[in-house]
């Protein structure tokens, strides 16, 4: 009988560990998608900046840590292809995200998992709301004060 009571917490701990790793994977997917969306935005900015320029104009591009000289005519299609490739990866990550969400929901239903916020979490959330505007530095005002 003693072994059964010991098996219960081990099982609960195993379920908790598995659930935690699933949540971690979900957060990693979110992080990667955010990172890639920023890259797409940067690619769009570059494309918008160089599109109206003369195609024979010289420009520079970083390839594998090496800065190379090219023309806009050569660089623009490459930047477009890279952007499309990143968007495709984001699409696949979005599909993986939806599958992971579904898996987590099924796991939560199977093991009757509910997330509870502790008092500390609630206090931290209210502190975060109050502190969102902190850390903003305005350059000209700081320069005026030093005169």
From TrEMBL:
Bias type Basic and acidic residues, positions: 118-131
SUPFAM superfamilies: Prefoldin
Keywords: Chaperone, Coiled coil
Region (Disordered): 118-147
One BP term from GO: protein folding
Top-level taxon of origin: Eukaryota
Gene Ontology terms: cellular component: cytoplasm; prefoldin complex
InterPro entries given in the database record: PFD2 (IPR027235), PFD_beta-like (IPR002777), Prefoldin (IPR009053)
Annotated GO MF terms: protein folding chaperone; unfolded protein binding
Ranges in coiled-coil conformation: 83-110
Family indicated by similarity: Belongs to the prefoldin subunit beta family.
Protein name: Probable prefoldin subunit 2
Gene name of the encoded protein: LOC110782683
